[in-house]
Amino acid sequence: MELGAFSVSLAVKDIQASKLFYEKLGFTVFGGDQSQNWLIMKNGDHVIGLFHGMFEKNILTFNPGWDANARPLDEFTDIRKLQRRLKDRGISMLSEADEGTTGPASFMIADPDGNSILFDQHV
Length: 123
Description:
alpha/beta, seven-stranded mixed β-sheet, 2 helices, globular
């Protein structure tokens, strides 16, 4: 099952301090808008998102339909199909994508330790 591009979305207390810290680790700003309290940073194929005031805990994020550079893929597993597969495997949804739609959508699950996992399709 192909889940899409992977990143870690970090709930940060001070986006500027976090940006400077991750720049010291070799990350560079790849996207986002610091004035809106969010940045996407990359170091090679490693992607992190810095989010101030948007959620309480860190989130593992998969983006079906994107490669590691946020470029649309020609072929990918649609988020609604992923959602159905996971539900068929007994995984409970915290939020669900509308099965009657196409294109961008998202759903969220949690692992046994309570870590949130977001599946967020932008294409």
